Amino acid sequence: MSIEPARRVRRSPEAARENILQSAERLLLERGPQGLKLVEVAQGAGVSHATVLHHFGSIDGVQTALAEAMIRQLVARVLEAERPDDPEAQLEGVGQVLFDAFESAGGARLAAWLELTGETRRLTLVREAVAEVISGPMAQKGVDPERATNLILVAVSLAMGVGLIGRSLAELVGRPPETTREAALAFLKAGLAAALAR
C-alpha cells in the first residue's frame, strides 16, 4: 500500500507539527511503530522530509513527540472521566479510557517499540503526567500518593500487556479475544475500589 502524498499547504509551526503528528499516528495505527518512516510521515502530512527533520530532528523525535501527545490525551481523558456522583461508573470509565489508549490507539505498540529501541528515556512527560493524576482526582479522594503511584504503575502495565498480546493470548487458551481485557479491567477496578475505600 503506498502513501498518497497530501497537498502541501503553508501552516504555522504549531499547525505543521500537529499535522506531522497526525500523519505519524495514522501510520502507527496502520503499520505499527516500525512503519513510521520519515519520508512516509512527511508524504502523509504533505510536507517535505526536511520539514519533519526541522520540527522533530529525526524519526525518533517524531516517535517521542507522538508518544507524549498520546500521554497528554490519555491524562486529559482520565481527568474528564471524573464522576464524583458515581464511583463505580468512574472506575469503569477510567479503565476503558486507559485500555483504549493502549489497545485500540496503538499506545502499547509505540511504548514497547520505544522501550525496545532504548528511547523511553526521552519520555520525560511521564513523571509529570503521573503527578497530575495523583495530585488531581486521586488526591481529592484521599488516596495516599505512594499507593496512587503503585496503582498507576499496575494499571498502565495491565493496559500495556492487554494492548500488546491480550487478544492473541486469550485466543491461544481458547477464550474469546476480549477475555483478557475484561479480566484485567475487573482486577484493576477491584484494586482501585480497595484503594479508594481506605
Short description:
With 198 residues, this protein is mainly α. It has helices spanning 13-31, 38-45, 49-56, 59-80, 87-103, 107-116, 125-140, 145-172, 179-197.
Radius of gyration: 18 Å
Largest sheet, if any?
A: none
Topology order in helix (H) and strand (E) letters: HHHHHHHHH
Low-confidence stretches: none
Q: In oligomeric terms, what are we looking at?
A: single chain
Question: Strand pairing plus helix content: what structural class?
Answer: mainly alpha
Separation of the first and last Cα atoms: 54 Å
Q: Shape, please?
A: globular
The count of domains is 2
Helix content: over 70%
Mean pLDDT: 84
**Discrete helix count:** 9
Number of strands: 0
Per DSSP, what share of the residues sits in E-state strands of 2 or more residues? under 5%
Fold and architecture overview:
With 198 residues, this protein is mostly helical. It has 9 helices and no strands. Helices cover 74% and strands 0% of the residues. The N and C termini lie far apart (54 Å). The mean pLDDT is 84.
Helix/strand layout:
Blueprint: H1 13-31, H2 38-45, H3 49-56, H4 59-80, H5 87-103, H6 107-116, H7 125-140, H8 145-172, H9 179-197
Helix pairs in contact: 1-2, 1-4, 2-3, 4-5, 4-6, 4-7, 5-8, 5-9, 6-8, 7-8, 8-9
Q: Which features does this protein show?
A:
single chain; 198 residues; 2 domains; 74% helix; Arc Repressor Mutant, subunit A; 9 helices; 0% strand; mainly alpha
